[in-house]
Amino acid sequence: MNKDPESTERRLVLKRLGQAGLVLGGSGAIAALGAFSSGRWRGDRKLATIADHRVEPSPGSALAVARGTDPARLVRASLAAIGGMERFVRPGDTVLLKPNMAWDRTVEQGANTHPAIVAEVARLCLAARAKRVIVAEVPVHDAARVAERSGIRKAALEAGAEVLIPPDAGFVDTALSGATLDHWEVFAPLFLADRVINLPIVKDHALTRFTCGLKNWYGLLGGTRARLHQDIHHAIADVAGAVRPTLTVVDATRVMVRGGPTGGRLEDVRIENAVAAGTDAVALDAWGAGLLGLDPFDIPYLMLAEGRGLGSIRAGMGRIEEIRVGA
Amino acid sequence: MGRSKSTKWPLALLLAAPLLAICTWLVVGAVNRSQGPSALIPGLPPPEADLPADRLEERVDGAAESLRKNGCKRLVAWKLISPPADLEIYVFGDIEGAKALLDREAGSHLDPAPGDEASVTAQAILFRRGVFYAKLIADPAAAADPEPLMTVAANLDQALSGASGARLLALAEPSRP
Question: Which residue of A has its CA nearest to B103?
Answer without folding.
Answer: A259
